[in-house]
Each structure stands twice: as structure tokens, then as C-alpha cells.
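Problem 12. The chain below contains 424 residues. Write out its predicted structure in C-alpha cell notation.
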Amino acid sequence: MKVMTSEEKDRAYVWHPFTPQLPLKSNINITRGEGVYLIDDKENKYLDAISSWWVNLHGHCNSYIAQKISEQLKQLEHSIFSDFTHPSAILLAERLLKHLPVNQSKIFYSDNGSTAVEVALKMALQFWHNQEQTKTVFIAFENAYHGDTFGSMSVGARNVFSNAFEALLFDVQHIPLPTDKNINEVKDQLISILKKGNVAGFIFEPLVQGASGMRMYETSYLDELIAICNKHKVITIADEVMTGFGRTGKFFASDYLLNKPDIFCLSKGLTGGFMPLGVTSCAGFIHQAYLSTDKAKTFFHGHSYTANATACSAALASLDLMEKEQTWLQIKMIEKAHLMFKEKICVSPKLKNVRVKGTIIAFELKTEEHSHYLNAASQSISSYFLEKGIILRPLGNIFYLIPPYVIKESELKIIYDSIESFLK
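Solution.
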């Protein structure tokens, strides 16, 4: 009997995400990681320029986080979290609240970014329900991406990600991303929707829309929209799953804002890329609506792995590193290098746009196709850089860098040089 190779077993048994099933390509078998590199079973090294879907902050197999996880495993790996608690969850909640805006008062744990958003939506809806008010409409930006569960898909853009499920998604009022040209129209549209009186909340990715192509917009415009929502007493929800933990140059993207959101959704970089964990934090007035002897007003939501102790220990270790001066020096170095490269490359006739926010730089390639996710340029971009030993995952004709903070200037130069070669 023939023994199957790992490649054959992968093709036979595993269904990978966001992957067309015909033709089914072979996947690179990653066996270990070192810093900014992933290494396959043939000892080929790949520079992880996108932090493995934006989760890795401090480098692969960071020894400090690994050590803290090991210590936790010798104490407690996991425990039920209803009627019970544990030290790591308590400490993590305390420390996160010290970094979040002062209006945040409670931390609710879940498993990932989609569920953190799902919790936020349910939390907002039940806030009104507990007060016997019928407010069920959400407002979101066009081209938004908030996850792949049904609530998070509903507040996201209607596109290839959700087409098969559109009939089952709840209605959401989508407004354009604000720009210099349309900010007044966007404000008028928002006010018009709010005046109907049935809006439960406004959800947004602050300053950078990730999956829609790293689309960036001005802080002042978001501040104005939040102020309008505050005036109409509508809950504001910041989806900081991608933008949190230094990605935009501050601890949270909302740190740029004067008007602070009422609810925050966190995941991805929360554990430094080591363990799945989600967090939804809320302002005190939201939690107040659940303080009742009426058990029907309980927030009936949870996960088997809520506040997993091992994941919480990883998040605490990642926070330790985030609070070090060296990490912020690295973030500033990456931002400065991106800005310098933007000035150099933005004159390329092959590029429609180059944009930078903190450690994120995005390049929009000029193509004849107007479609985004299904743009044929995606495959040629990823293949070219993979041959150079660089991992990029384009969003259609848009490719970007969002590297781990431990990357060196010399490694950034390797990526920049490869981009210049690609454009030639």
C-alpha cells in the first residue's frame, strides 16, 4: 500500500479557508517559525510580510510568550468560566482597561474577531431590549468587513464573501466612507437615518478598513460621525480587531479620536499571534442595562473556551512586550520606513495609490478590472513575491505590508526592493 505524503494528505483531508476547490493547488507545508520568517518542510524561508493574517506582533515563536504559555500550562490550561474565574483572565481584563479609553468598564471574552463583533452586536441590541425599546437597525460603512459569522456578515459589505447567505442577513444601513469630497453628504445621510429613531448602533473599523483593501480615512471625519451618534444617543462600536495593538502607530486606532467609542472589539494581535482569543469591552452605561434581578435580562452568550487560561497568558505576555519602549521604537521605525518608501514609489505609473498608516502600507495596482476580491492580479502578485521568498496575500489588485514589529530595516529593504522589481 502506497504511503501518502503530507502534501497528498493535506489535499485529501483538509479544507482550507478562502480557497477555490477547483483547481485545488498544493499548499506550502510550514513546519516552524523564527522571527519574521516561516520555514517549510524543504527548509525554504519565507519573510512573513503580513504577520500571518495580521496576528503576529512580536515574531514567530517569540521565546518570551512561549515561556509564559509553558508556565501557564503547568498551572491551569482551561476552566469553565460561568460561576468560576481565574487569575489570568482577571489580570488581563485589568490591564486591557488601562490601555482602553476611560469610558470602558467591562471585558467580555470570546474566541476570535468575528465572535468579538457578534458579542458587540448582541450586547448593543439587548441593551435596548432590556429597557423595552425597539431599536434593531445598525449603521456601517460601505465595503466594511467585520467577520464571517451571521451578525458580522450582516454589518459587512454585501459581496462575494456573503452572497450565498444574503437572504438570511439582517438589514443594515450602509453609508459611504467619508472623504474630503463627501463628508457633508455622509453626515447628512447619517443624520437622516438616525432621525428614524430605530438605530441600535453604528459599527466601524477606525481609520483603516482592512479586508476591503486597507482603505484609510481621516480621524476628524470619524470624530464628527461619532459626535452625531452621541447626540442621538446611539451606541458606537469600534472594530479594532485589525487596527489594535500598535498597527496604526498608537496602541489603538481610537486613540487618535477625541470622541471615544462605547464598545471595542479586539482579537488578532491580542495574543501576539499565539492563541485564538477575542475581547469585547463596553462602557459603563451599557453594562448598567444588565444589572437586574430579572434573570431574563442576563446576557445569555458564551463559548466553551471563554477566557481560556492559556490564551489569556499569551495575551498578558504580548502586553508585556507591547509596553516595552523597544517595541514602540520598532513601530516608529517601520512607519518612518514606509513613509520614505511611499515618497519614492508613489510616482510609479503602475500604481493608482499608495497609502500609509502606522505600520501599514498599501499599494493599489492599476488594472483594467474593477472587481476587488476576484481581480486576476491577485494571483500574479502573490506568486511573484512567493518566488522571492516573501509572503503577501493581496486583496485583489491591492497588496500591502503589515509586518511583525521585530522586522529589521534590512528586511524591510528586501521587501521594498522586490516591490520595485515587481512594478518594473
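Discussion. The CA atoms of residues 188 and 194 lie 10 Å apart. Students who got a different answer should revisit the alignment rule from Section 12.3.
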